[in-house]
Amino acid sequence: DPTILWFRRDLRLSDQAALIAAAGEGSVVPVYILDDETPKHRAMGAASRWWLHHSLKALDASLREKGSRLILRRGKSDEQLSDIAKECGAERVHALRHYEPWWRNAERAVAKRIDLVLHDGNYLAPPGSITTGTGGQYKIYTPFWRALNGHMPPPDPHRAPAKIDPPARWPKSDTLNDWDLLPTKPNWAKGFDPWTPGEEGAHKQLSRFKRHADDYAETRNLPSEDGSSRLSPHLHFGEVSPAQVWHAVAEEGGSVGTFLGELGWRDYAQNIILQYPDYASKNARDAFDEMPWRSSKVDLRAWQQGRTGYPIVDAGMRQLWATGWMHNRVRMIAASFLIKHLLIDWREGERWFWDCLVDADYGNNAVNWQWTAGTGVDSNMFVRIMAPLTQSPKFDAAGYIRQWVPELAKLDDAAIHDPEDAGCRPRDYPAKIIGHRAARERALAAYRHTK
Ligand code: FAD
After folding, report:
1. What residues flank ligand 1, with Cβ below 6 Å?
2. What's the topology of domain 286-450?
3. Where does 123-154+200-275 sit in CATH, by number?
4. Engineered SS bond to 132: which of 43, 60, 136, 268, CB 3.0-4.6 Å?
5. Helices 297-305 & 311-323 angle (0-180, nearest 10)
6. What's the pLDDT tens digit per position in 138-183?
7. What was the pLDDT predicted at 381?
8. Residue 156: how many other CB atoms lie within 10 Å
9. For the packed helices 257-275 and 362-373, what is the interaxial angle rounded to 10 degrees?
10. What atom of ligand 1 comes closest to residue 327's alpha carbon?
């Protein structure tokens, strides 16, 4: 009898423990289920769906090269898997373990219907396995990373099997194009062009990054330079495993510690959502439940559309819309701006990122939003109010602003970070939505309500 291989955010054939286990038992039925019912309002956002479409296409092509194919189904994971098992005579499912609360629910539901074997491999260490001296879970990144790093390097990655045996009869499959994962508007085709979803695209991106990984610690904070790896959507969809990334980068030698530490943040975030499953919707510090957030639709839209009058913020928000990605330093500035300058609940920003990012990740997104807001389990940073107009020249963002805010492209380096103050704001660029000092005072006054 064949074994089912259930793909989710692990769309790769190499270093895929579930595939190795399934192939070791004989013929394999590889399956992807578009399950919008189990996650409910956490169903994938628009940019993620674009990525998924292309990644599934690539995965199917790679499977065909090995004598197999990808079966596509839509609906509740447990119902679909048990139907598929009946259609092809399978009695077991292999899958990599996932940590989003809805995936953990789905795993429990599946296990009630069929033998489900879960494997590790989407994280440097299985989330939950890195414990404190007294056996507890870490809540703070730095000690977590120290402990995780002590278990590194991760195991050597496995190769993909040379051949994957097909079952005697295939279950029925949907057609990818019928899922309508690609947007009708906006037309993202151009901005999204540089991305190549899929395992091959992930490895190309990894080799490109390897060559300059040594400069990462210096260049990663400069939005005008291409200093970071841009592996986030590939890692989110599991097109490359973190162990593969670790070994490829560590091989280069040099100072790659900073980069590996960022990879550690990804593991950390999963450990947090394992402890706090509703981290994307609930303040970890409940004093913030008393925060008098503003509910200005107009201000929220100005932020979403990149029309706040703060060039660095606007450049970031427009890069996000056009490409599905935003530079990390700018994510911090733009998120802080929404929360503190506009005094809008961080959960509004989290939702917008969820819909717009190709790397939208339940754990990473929620952990970073709560960290920026100061509402999280780690540090309370609300009163550390970032000054976007200082950050912008400090991280040399002039080139970045020119690229993403064409109205400002003609301004020189001295004026571009704050054209209003320099007296040369073009007429088609908005005035500042609120002054920095006024925003700061308003935020600190609101914060006093949480005490
Ligand atoms: P690199 O700097 O090359 O880092 C390598 C990898 O490490 C990344 O691909 C990512 O997997 C991981 N990583 C790096 N920084 C972080 C971090 N701070 N937290 C968790 N993992 C990290 N990242 C997401 O993957 N998905 C999200 O939904 C997401 N939302 C964010 C929201 C906010 C408000 C902020 C401030 C950050 C968010 N990040 C998120 C983290 C970070 O911005 C991105 O992972 C990074 O910009 C991706 O680019 P890169 O692959 O070039 O990163």
Report:
1. 220, 228-232, 235-236, 262-263, 265-266, 269, 328, 331-332, 335, 353, 357, 359-361, 364-365, 368-369, 372
2. DNA Cyclobutane Dipyrimidine Photolyase, subunit A; domain 3 (1.10.579)
3. 1.25.40.80
4. 136
5. 70
6. 999 999 999 999 999 999 999 999 999 999 999 999 999 999 999 8
7. 84
8. 10
9. 90
10. 47
